[in-house]
Amino acid sequence: MANNSVTCSFVMDRETYNAYKSIVSKNGENVKGNLISYMQSVIQYGTPNAETILAIQEVQRLKNSPDKRVYSSFSEILQEIDDDE
Length: 85
Prior knowledge:
mainly alpha, 0% strand, elongated
């Protein structure tokens, strides 16, 4: 183990752990890797709120999408909504 690493140890309810493990393993992850990834997201986005992190990531994906729509005004957006109805 490198000198700049830390070992984390904590106690939690087994039912909570098993439920969490079940969810992350269904997505091809393990608990340790998922927690480390979450911690890195908290650091990157400066917020511990998972919903906020997902929203920020979605906005970044949309901004980078070659199919994104660009509007010059809010009224243009409203007009498109009216046209779709």
